[in-house]
């Protein structure tokens, strides 16, 4: 790292024209902040090896092929490119309603004032661990209620809440006669992430699992914000330097309109309503702002949030990481745990303080020194050298203390 560059990490690496923060940027420091700092200063990101790419590709091909097919679409403008992302979310939400699953689900949120982007491996209506969910429900029933209730997150100023949005939205009125039907109020959405490993064993210990747990909790937070219309669309568009009112190109509209929705007919049949022609739908939402509005209405049908504080979230708190073998993509095992907003808040506060340059990055503690053995920056890491010297000093003091006690 250049000692003369006093800019914060966010200024150096995630300020326009560079890309916004990603979930990877937020959770990678959970493994080792210094390793991520070295990676940023050398590569600008975490460098993925050929083995990592091959393993990830194999696992995601196995899971992705089970639900949807990839279709190539050419774009003429950056608004087209971002519109394609929003359209993919809309189709993913329809796939979720029709099949109970959706994969490669993109999200955006504003976290600690920064636009953050992430892609969730899998959403499902099926709970990944019903026993754990039942245990949590039982604990909540028997747990005495203490303290003040948690403050509900609210939509940004000037942004309508869901009740206002749907009472006056033309999109909502259009959907009254579309195939989309009514929300599944009794369904819950669960989040799963797929990890690949070179070994055939599960990762051991809390330290090894920490980045994955933070990643899944970030997905939970971001999906909750987006689905409840609590993400300021204009801030997202501004961060990507997009004109939210610009019309999409004719070529882009024609391509999307010609793609037959794989699950549209099935969803229409389930909703007992006629399917809407994609061209008509796209022409009615021919800008990023209008397409975002359509996306929010689709969220309310697939993941319906209520404005009543007492209503449980439609997003389940049971999160799962599934581990697959790199190469074959076969399942090694899985680990489930419970979303904890307090733990995530504390982690975000600490990590964003580093990103904002309010503190220096830290290395791992002695108990997690095993991470240094697989780090490409071990030889140049001052933190590691200091910890080694600290360990030697402590060992020497213990030895001297033992000698005195023997005397």
From TrEMBL:
Tell me a GO cellular component: nucleus
Which of UniProt's keywords are assigned here? Answer: 4Fe-4S, Exonuclease, Hydrolase, Iron, Iron-sulfur, Metal-binding, Nuclease
The cofactors it requires, by name, are:
[4Fe-4S] cluster
Task: Give the record's GO biological process terms.
Answer: interstrand cross-link repair
Which parts of this chain are annotated as the region Disordered? 137-177
Record InterPro entries: EXOV
For bias type Polar residues, the affected ranges are 158-171
Pfam families (alphabetical): Exo5 (PF09810)
* A single GO molecular function term of this UniProt record: single-stranded DNA 5'-3' DNA exonuclease activity
Q: How does it assemble?
A: Monomer.
* Family recorded in the similarity comment: Belongs to the EXO5 family.
Name of the protein this chain belongs to: Exonuclease V
Upper classification of the source organism reads: Eukaryota, Fungi, Dikarya, Ascomycota, Pezizomycotina
């Amino acid at each position: 790292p250049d000692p003369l560059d006093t800019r914060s990490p966010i200024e150096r690496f995630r300020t326009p024209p560079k890309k916004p923060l990603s979930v990877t940027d937020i959770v990678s420091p959970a493994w080792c902040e210094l390793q991520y700092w070295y990676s940023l200063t050398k590569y600008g990101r975490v460098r993925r090896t050929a083995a990592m790419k091959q393993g990830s590709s194999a696992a995601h091909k196995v899971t992705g092929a089970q639900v949807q097919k990839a279709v190539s679409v050419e774009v003429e403008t950056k608004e087209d490119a971002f519109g394609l992302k929003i359209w993919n979310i809309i189709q993913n939400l329809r796939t979720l309603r029709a099949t109970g699953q959706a994969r490669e689900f993109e999200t955006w949120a504003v976290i600690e004032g920064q636009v953050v982007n992430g892609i969730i491996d899998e959403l499902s209506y099926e709970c990944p661990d019903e026993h754990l969910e039942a245990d949590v429900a039982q604990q909540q029933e028997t747990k005495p209620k203490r303290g003040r209730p948690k403050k509900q997150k609210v939509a940004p100023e000037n942004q309508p809440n869901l009740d206002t949005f749907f009472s006056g939205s033309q999109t909502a009125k259009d959907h009254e006669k579309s195939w989309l039907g009514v929300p599944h109020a009794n369904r819950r959405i669960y989040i799963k992430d797929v990890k690949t490993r070179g070994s055939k064993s599960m990762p051991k210990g809390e330290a090894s699992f920490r980045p994955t747990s933070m990643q899944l909790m970030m997905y939970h937070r971001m999906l909750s914000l987006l689905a409840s219309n609590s993400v300021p669309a204009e801030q997202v568009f501004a961060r990507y330097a997009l004109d939210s009112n610009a019309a999409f190109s004719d070529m882009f509209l024609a391509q999307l309109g010609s793609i037959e929705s794989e699950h549209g007919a099935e969803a229409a049949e389930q909703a007992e309503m006629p399917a809407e022609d994609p061209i008509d739908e796209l022409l009615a939402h021919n800008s990023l702002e209008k397409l975002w509005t359509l996306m929010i209405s689709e969220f309310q049908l697939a993941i319906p949030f209520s404005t009543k504080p007492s209503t449980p979230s439609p997003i389940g708190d049971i999160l799962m990481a599934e581990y697959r073998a790199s190469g074959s993509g076969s399942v090694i095992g899985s680990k489930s745990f419970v979303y904890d907003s307090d733990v995530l808040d504390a982690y975000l506060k600490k990590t964003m303080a580093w990103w904002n340059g309010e503190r220096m990055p830290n290395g791992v503690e002695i108990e997690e020194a095993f991470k240094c053995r697989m780090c490409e920056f071990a030889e140049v890491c001052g933190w590691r050298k200091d910890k080694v010297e600290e360990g030697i000093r402590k060992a020497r003091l213990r030895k001297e203390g033992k000698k005195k006690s023997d005397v």
